[in-house]
Amino acid sequence: xxDRIGTRRDFLRASGGTLGAAWLGAHWPAIAAAAEHAxxxxxxxxxxxxRLLDPAQARDVEAVAxxxxxxxxxxxxxxxxxxxxxxxxxSGIFKDGAGDFLAGLAAFQQGWTAAHPGAGAFADADxxxxxxxxxxxxxxxFFQAMRFFTITGLLALPSYGGNRDKVGWKMVGFVDQHIWSxxxxxxxxxxAGFVPYExxxxx
Length: 203
Hints:
Blueprint: H1 2-40, H2 55-68, H3 77-80, H4 82-90, H5 98-115, H6 127-137, H7 141-155, H8 167-172
């Protein structure tokens, strides 16, 4: 079990660094919108409803994410609610890319049906069959987008919907805690945790 957790943790750390750099370079204008969203979600309330994907689309998106970071002895992308992260960012800060993503998802679903007639939806297949098919599409823009959203969703603020119960942070060993400690500067004087400098005693 520890080997699997370690491998997954290394994968998330490496992917997070690589994808994070690519995201910052390509999507810098969205950062302000993301910050505003995070500020608005500071209450900790997470909306676990679908805004863009229909139920069939959501099931396949969740199934793909669940193979990118599967569940075993620890929670994976499914338990973390990555599908809601995908849905929410594509209907929000990444809405300009929603059309391309949905087109890629439709092509993925059509490709699955063509390759497996009568097998039902991708989400209904057993894991070995899903993995076999994903290997045939791993270089497509859709799968690359899913990989990006899955990793990003696991490591993002839980308020975005994809890091439920902070399972992604637990995988990589990130501790969510306040890192600043007093004494603070004058600019923090109104902050609730502000503690003034103690005057040094003079002899």
